[in-house]
Backbone:
């Protein structure tokens, strides 16, 4: 699966959390808890996946565009649901 993300958001996530959004490729979405993210109208369907990376719970916010999983990061979600 192709993974896409904003390079600026990736740099920010690496600086804050030491984790690249490219690691979305390592999350097993079949084993993760995946929920629709319908908290607001984003103009496209979005999901939140809660799964394990490197022995820790991580949250992956994502959507699909043109066959690519577009990853976003949000540490608040892991704190809230972890």
Residues:
């Amino acid at each position: 699966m192709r993974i896409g993300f904003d390079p600026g958001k990736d740099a920010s996530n690496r600086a804050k959390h030491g984790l690249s959004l490219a690691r979305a490729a390592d999350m097993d979405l079949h084993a993760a808890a995946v929920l629709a993210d319908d908290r607001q109208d984003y103009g496209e369907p979005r999901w939140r996946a809660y799964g394990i990376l490197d022995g820790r719970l991580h949250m992956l916010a994502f959507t699909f565009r043109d066959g690519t999983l577009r990853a976003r990061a949000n540490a608040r979600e892991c704190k809230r649901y972890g």
Summary: Strands lie at 2-4, 33-36, 47-53, 56-65, 68-72. The first strand starts at residue 2 and ends at 4.
